[in-house]
Amino acid sequence: MKIGAALCVLLLSVIAVHAAEIATADRKSGFEFMGRDTQAMQTDDTSNPGMLNVLDGGALWERPEGADKKACASCHGDASQRMKGVAARYPAFDATAGQVVDLGQRINLCRRDHQKAPELAYESRDLLALSAFVARQSRGQPIAIADDARSANALMQGRKLFNERMGQLNLSCAICHDDNWGQKLGGTSIPQGHPNGYPLYRLEWQAMGSLQRRLRNCMIGMRAEPFSYGSSEFIALELFLMQRAQGMAMESPAVRP
Amino acid sequence: MPFKVEGDAIQRSLTGQPGDPTEGRRIVISRQTGLCLLCHSGPFPDERFQGTLAPSLAGAGTRWTLGQLRLRLVDGRRLNPDTIMPSYYVLDGVVRVAPSFAAKTILNAAQIEDVVAFLSTLRD
After folding, report:
1. Which structural domain, as residue segments, surrounds residue B73?
2. Which chain B residues touch A220 with a CB distance below 8 Å?
3. What single string gives the DSSP state of each residue in A190-203?
4. What pLDDT, in 10s, does the model give residues B73-100?
5. B104 lies in a domain?
6. B35 to chain A: nearest residue by CA?
7. Is residue B97 domain-resident?
8. ipTM exceeding 0.85?
9. What is the CATH classification number for the domain harbouring B37?
10. Residues of chain A with a CB closer than 8 angstroms to some CB in chain B
11. Computed from CA positions of residues B65, B66, B70, B71, in that sequence, does the dihedral angle turn out positive or negative?
12. Considering only CB atoms, which chain B residues are within 8 Å of A187?
């Protein structure tokens, strides 16, 4: 009897922790929470403002840079072939860096090691353009985060951060994006919080922005101190979000309200 | 201000004075101060953007006494440890608060009393 009761409690607490995670079949891109006009803006390349950045990125891809006067294309060639599906695999463990890096950091590693060019800052025009250009080559490809033991700690940390309450309002990512997606926060529909469209053009920003910029916005809303750009916390959160969206189609450059 | 929880309520006004319901209404609908309508809806026909994460505030004054409303605002975790409603008048149990809000409660004692006074006017 006692054991039965204890088991019940155990089961209940397991359910309480996991019931909230979104079932694979119920996952929806942020795209599905937008109005028709914004959707049309994203799907038509001629009206998608993010495509301007992709064009800029394409030019940067071909441009020789740094002491070695090499372009990305010098090593990688035709991006439409060689970069297809790449953005869908990041963040990933990088052996040279000895840590999990996101796409922007991977681009900067190439600049440092192969082009002998200075790092591009987070949210700089050029890094967003190159990231958008690379990510564009994965449009429609399924997110495919590798099952890699070397990323396991970062993944665990990301999951923990996603579920942890923080900030003056004492909210967690999971409270909004697992438990209350589809509800209205003030006038705004709460999406499931998937990372499949980044970098993207946000109408509210009137600009392109990275996933980390979006996460900073959510943290500011929680009245929490945002993690800094490129921090291990943000990389871990990005990795967890991508893992959580495993198999969903990439949309970059997406448009969001 | 110290306060005393008795059962599911805080009987005494935090300021020793009754609050001002007009000011309370202003706080409740404000997106910067009260933030209530991020989650709640209520009898505010002019407010276009109301939340759906929490029960409507309509009738709150019929369902709850002043003391019950006061505890709900001060620290709802005492009533439901898993609540997503922020504790508006206690500092403990929060981490990584943005520097501009650190060591501050979301509302001050007078604002809590104003909101309590306003909620008690919300009758079905």
Report:
1. 21-119
2. 98
3. P-----TT-SEEET
4. 999 999 999 999 999 999 999 999 999 9
5. yes
6. A186
7. yes
8. yes
9. 1.10.760.10
10. 164-171, 175, 179-180, 183-188, 220, 223-226
11. negative
12. 48-50
